[in-house]
Amino acid sequence: MTHYTGLIERYRKRLPVSDSTRIISLNEGNTPLIQLQNIPRLIGKEVDIYVKFEGLNPTGSFKDRGMTMAVTKAVEAGSHAIICASTGNTSASAAAYAARAGIRAFVLIPEGKIALGKLAQTLMYDAKIIQISGNFDQGMQLVKEVADHAPVTIVNSINPFRIDGQKTAAFEIVDALGFAPDYHCLPVGNAGNITAYWKGYTEYARDRVCGNLPVMCGYQAAGAAPFVLGEMVDHPETVATAIRIGHPQSWDFAWTAQRESGGWFDKFTDEQILAAQKMLSQFEGIFCEPASATSLAGALHDIGSGKIPEGSKIVCTLTGNGIKDPEIAMMQCADAKPITIDASLDAVKRAILDSL
């Protein structure tokens, strides 16, 4: 019987750990790469679209990939506490891995700007939550400053071990397909993920594990699109809270990934992002959080325009599970409320037959 122990054990030779390193893991990684069956038919295009569903990591987002590495290395260095700024997913992941390691987690979150599912997770993992009357970018600046005055290790994506952990998603995609996709589409907020995927693909190509490199396509929300505008955004706004970031910490690295891969950045409205989220749920049975759906919104737009040609093999990263943000899901389904009927066979039969 194969015992899967997490991505560090699986890719140990490609990660900065030694035989004596104590691995802090929740068996993250090994997430499914799902080929879409119905959406390509709906849009009438001959393309292979796969989604890397990172929402099936232990805390429901891709952040666990980087966090297992960041917390493992923090513990190895003797740290007894970690800290992060977060729009939600990072705080949940950091809190979970800190609990696993037996150390403290401190998280700074924007007051009133975090999805309920993510806040509930962080509370249950017993992190110390500090709400600030500001946005993520202000929180990130405070985290960097406080780390100079308190014995805490930063586990945001400015921590290079986070990027090392996250690059393993690219390894998994190549391992599953036998090749790198032609195009890789991602939502972009703090830009650590596009940085990490590009690092993973280039390492595999360098070692001849794959022969080609994908074009990296980064998609942002229209109200939080510094890469599209070419400058930082001081007051980002979008319903896609996970990418409500105006001052990306991986700014230079993301531009490198775009330039070296021949890729691009683009932006989409909240309405387009939510439509993609609903489409993915309705026609493929895959429920991701709003920010995740930005990758599909971008891919479908560029397939439709011909920018991504027919015959292409495309991977879209879905960064988080839809259960993370139940309020937005319920808002989208306001017209599909449950009906109330008598508790009788005839009433149930009528309700079913009326709907067929």
Characterize the structure shown:
The longest helix is centred in the last third of the chain and has 16 residues. The chain starts with 6 loop residues before the first helix and ends with a helix. The protein has 15 helices and ten strands. The strands form two sheets. It has a six-stranded mixed β-sheet with strand order 1-2-10-7-8-9, with helices on both faces. A four-stranded parallel β-sheet has the order 5-4-3-6. The protein folds into two domains: 225 residues, Rossmann fold (3-Layer(aba) Sandwich); 96 residues, 3-Layer(aba) Sandwich (Rossmann fold). The chain has 356 residues and is an alpha/beta fold.
How are strands sequenced across the largest beta sheet? 1-2-10-7-8-9
Number of strands: 10
- Profile the largest sheet: 6 strands, mixed
CATH class of the largest domain: Alpha Beta
Q: Could you please say which CATH topology of the largest domain applies here?
A: Rossmann fold
Unreliably modeled segments: none
Radius of gyration equals 20 Å
Tally of separate domains? 2
Helix content: 40-55%
Name the structural class.
Answer: alpha/beta
* Range of strand content: 5-15%
Write the element-wise H/E pattern from the N-terminal end onward: HEHEHEHEHEHEHHEHEHHEHHEHH
- Basic shape: globular
